[in-house]
Amino acid sequence: MNYIKNRKHLARFMLTVFFCVFLFSKYSVTAHATAEELAAEAEARKLLPVQSDEIENWPTGPQTSAQAAILMDANTGIILYAKNIHEKLYPASTTKILTCFLAMENGNLDDMVPFSHEAVFSVPLDGSKMGMNAGESIPLEEALYGILVASANEVSNAVAEYVSGSISDFIDLMNTRAAELGCTDSHFSNTNGLFDENHYTSVYDLALISSAFFQNEILCKISNTPRYHFEPTETQPDDFYKNNKHQLVNGEIPYEGILGGKTGYTDQSRQTLVTCAEKNGMKLICVVFKEESPEQFTDTVELFNYGFQNFQVLNVSENEDKFNIENVNFFQAENDIFGNSKPILSIDPDSYVIVPNMANFSNLDSTVDYQIEEEDHVAKIDYTYNNTYVGSAYVNLSEYAESIYQFEAMESSGNDKNKSVENNDKKQSKDTVSSSSELQQEDDKIIYINVRTVLIGVMIFASFFICFFIIRALIVNSNNSKRRKNRVDRKKHRRERIRSNFDDFDF
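Above: the chain sequence. Below: its structure as tokens.
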């Protein structure tokens, strides 16, 4: 009986071992096949068309294994590299760029962020977490480090509740604010980027969001932190460190000019990455979606090198010669009695375009838009290179003109309090720009007297007149002097002749 029992135990043991080996072998084969499939998919993505390469005389961009990628100037929205930039994909934890941006817009860094049961336990155990427990709290500033450095999902939820009162209300805020920033390919359904079929965006939309994010110095600093120390407090008892997995931030891949970034990963999204770098007068944002590690980092480096090495920044006000705003009479204020003329309008001195290195400012086409909503601007000039947007510049009222408008508004308000002269004048200045030809015709009928020019002319004429009389007087004096000398000489000769005649007589 014992023999039979032993044989049964042995058979069960052997069967268990065989089953485990079978499962392990099957898993290994499956995993190996999946890795091969992923590698094949990555190679196939390298062959996808790059839309920016289709622009005439545009620098050819690198072949990336990303499904979608973009390189955008953070200040102007100029796109240097475009690959499927409007394709809707899963962003994973790069979603937290928007979460932190909204926290900075609506919160106070010193405020305490409490952790509710829902914030902590609504995220999966195997997801990225910082280990916070329900009932604990940390300052908002520390929470932002938890999100951007540790990529903590429960901290994103807690910050959402702090900002909006509930996670669902915060998600509504995410979608509203994204639309305000110009996003059209996005819908967000959670605060942290965990996979959801209804949670998606495009690299273009995320670049727009990141442009706003990286305008904030504090967010740049936090997202560019390689390692952060969370110290114990009365409301958070643990002492621990968290490391940033972004290799361009933590120094694993050194790169000059990095301002910060955020990593992301889920099985469905694969690797996603947002990075910002500043160099050569450009502040570029790179977003790559659906890559395999470590290509999300190496491709980002290639894209940054492509942007910084193949493009140049040109200041508009220093290069614009089509409009000649400083020299056109229409853009000058009325002359004063001394003929001084000051410009009413001027091009924003900080505006610039980004063009390929081989291009010149003269190669650009421009269009002027007078129907703009910004009160501080009169018109906007958009520039294109081979039908591709490369920048814009605003035409502004000069400080001199604004002071004139303010004075006229004050003067008119004394006569008629119901009129807003300043706003009307500014509106008229816009209308004047759009109908410059009519005003130029009216201007031809008006005769302006430049008093300074008249005075200068009078002075020149007087100087000429005085010089004429001085020269004439000198000539006359010279002639008179010669006549006097001649008379003296004749008298002398006469006296000498008379004296010589007397010398002939002997008295």
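The mean pLDDT is 82.
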